[in-house]
Structure formats: structure tokens, C-alpha cells
Amino acid sequence: MPELPEVETVCQGLRQSIIGKKITHVDVLQPKLRINVPEDIEEIVTQQRILDIERRAKYILISLSNQYYLMVHLGMSGKLLVHTGMPERKKHDHLYWEFEDGAAMVFHDPRRFGLVTLAASEQIAHHPLLAHLGVEPLTNDFSAAYLQQTLKNKSCSIKQAIMDSKLVVGVGNIYAAESLFRSRIHPETPSNKLNTKQYEDLAEHIRQVLQDAIASGGSTLRDYVRSSGDVGYFQHHFDVYGREDESCTICKTKIKRIKQQGRSSFFCPKCQRK
DNA sequence: CCTTGAACCTGCGGGC
DNA sequence: TGCCCGCAGGTTCAAG
Length: 274
Hints:
Layout: H1 4-18, E1 23-28, H2 41-45, E2 50-56, E3 59-64, E4 68-73, E5 79-83, E6 93-99, E7 104-108, E8 115-120, H3 144-151, H4 158-162, H5 173-182, H6 196-218, H7 221-226, E9 256-260, E10 263-267
Antiparallel strand pairs: 1-6, 2-3, 3-4, 4-8, 5-7, 6-7, 9-10
The structure holds a DNA duplex.
């Protein structure tokens, strides 16, 4: 389950639980994911050790001792769980990796919008899934100046713009709504019509809302490891997301829901004006 | 180039 | 109880 903070939390959990382990077996129960699982995954991955876990956008990159990355994306409904022994097989479990010490990792994804694939380490930056991604929101490349510069000629809504992974990665439907609320910007505002302060607020609040969520995910990391992965992604409290007709946490006005690009947007019509 | 809409897939909850 | 609808955290691709 995916927005950047959840993916980051999963990566942190994996770092604590599988680095150094040797893969002894791979079981592919369902190869038809967003991209088909490579047919040679078993021969490439078995007998390799997990060296490290990295994240790029919402992709989990597991580096292996043979200069390959195992790339995992969780899509809308994916989970990557680690068990200390062999877990019982559940519906929508699509891949199992078994380790030398008896532990196992499971990729579980009812909707199959996620993916598991392989990439040679030296060409990882040029991999088609990663090559055209924009900046990471938690690095210094992401700033008000960057937003203002890249959006100055764009008339699309600011919500659509910040969810565009060619611009900035990792801002999904929840955190787009939350960062616009904190910035007091209406989601339908044209991207090129924000003033300088609004670009500053937005850049700052995108960073903040993601960092807050990572911190709160991190606080459950102990549980994550102990219980093999179920963090409870909707543990956070949101100011606007999913709160249609409930009252604004600032001014008590009823939160509105509208559709943008086929997806729900939530905002306070009083705090967030066009 | 841009914008819009649909597509991929399963499950859940509400209305009738 | 069943059926149909809309909804869900993402991403890509085709059409206009």
C-alpha cells in the first residue's frame, strides 16, 4: 500500500529484517502483474544475498550480490511481508522468496497493479520504469524555485501537477490533498497562477506532510517487524482526505469532495480558495 | 506539446 | 439474498 511514506516504512522494515539473508528458493504463483514477472527470476535470484534496500519514488529496490536489483512496486493494494517461518498461503499471494534461515518474504496484491521485476545494477538509472521520474520530494532538488520554474507555463490544476511523477515523485492522492490543505491552496487552481509565497508554502508542506507520515510510520516499525508487516496504513489522521461532509479542522466548514482526473479531491472551500 | 479518459484488477459497501 | 453501481492508496497509454 502505497504512498511514498508507506513505501519508505516498508523499506525501513526490510532493511531490519532481510539484509544479509541468502535466497534459497523463489515461488511464482501469479506472474501476471502490471508487468509480467521475468521467467528467469528463479535462476537469477536464487543463491544470492540481499545487500541493501533502496527506494526511488514508490519503487523498492533490493540489491543482490550478483549485481541485480529486485524491483518491487506495490501498486494500489500490494504488500511485501516478511515472516520468520513459512507462512500459510493466502489468496492473492503472488510470489514467495525463501531464505536460508527459514524466513520468507511474500508479495501479496489483490488488484495486481503492482509489479516485481529485475534490473541489472549498472543500468538501474536508465531502466524504463525509473528513467523519466522527476525529483525526490525529500531532497534539496525539490524547492519552491523548482516548482515555480517548472510550472510557470502549465495551466493544468495544481493538484494534477504535484501528482505528476515526471515533476515530483511520491505525492499520491492522499498527500496531494493534505499538502494543498496545509498550504491553503484550492486543488483546481491553475499551476501557473500561484504566487511566490504559495509555491514556497506548497514545497514546504509537501515535504512536511510526507516527513510527518514517515515519522508516524516509523513509530510503528517495531510492530511492523514483529508482526511481519502490517503497519496499518490508515492509522494517520488526515485533515481533509476521506472527510467529505465532516467539519474542517481549522474553521469547521464542511469538507467538499470533487472529481479531478477521475479521482476524488477533498478540500475546505473556505480555507482553500482559488 | 496538452488534456482527458480509459485501461489494468479485485473487493467492499450501499441501494434497490 | 442477489445484482448493479460506484468507490479505492497507482501508473500508463491512446485519442482528440
